[in-house]
Design brief:
The chain has 124 residues and is an all-beta fold. The protein contains no helices and 11 strands. Strands 2, 4, 5, 6, 9, 10 and 11 form a 7-stranded mixed beta sheet that branches.
């Protein structure tokens, strides 16, 4: 049974930082591209960042480029999202997702597995 469990969300002031973690189990983690998506109240889920299953290719939404960094630790079956210079518009529920052997089209939301999400709130 595949599980993706996000953690690290919380309340932070504008300009602050948070690091989200997503711990995966029940799959061969190194074979999976990992993505982060977010959904704000009343809005559709949107792509944030992704990292490939090999060679460490990354992709970022324009809105977070230069502020967020995605990384993975295959030994710990965990993907991270370091979020710096947070803005109120970053407020959302953040979800991690996994898709086997994806090397492109990271922004397409048809990932195999999804976590339950973690709330990030940025106060102004």
């Amino acid at each position: 049974q595949v599980q993706l469990v996000e953690s690290g969300g919380g309340l932070v002031q504008t300009g602050g930082s948070l690091r989200l973690s997503c711990a995966a189990s029940g799959l061969t983690f190194s074979n999976y591209a990992m993505g982060w998506f977010r959904q704000a109240p009343g809005k559709e889920r949107e792509f944030v960042a992704a990292i490939s299953w090999s060679v460490g290719m990354t992709d970022y939404a324009d809105s977070v480029k230069g502020r967020f960094t995605i990384s993975r630790d295959n030994a710990k079956n965990t993907v991270y999202l370091q979020m710096n210079s947070l803005k109120p518009e970053d407020t959302a529920v953040y979800y991690c997702a996994a898709d086997s052997f994806r090397l492109s089209s990271f922004r397409r939301p048809d990932y195999d597995y999804w976590g339950q999400g973690t709330q990030v709130t940025v106060s102004s």
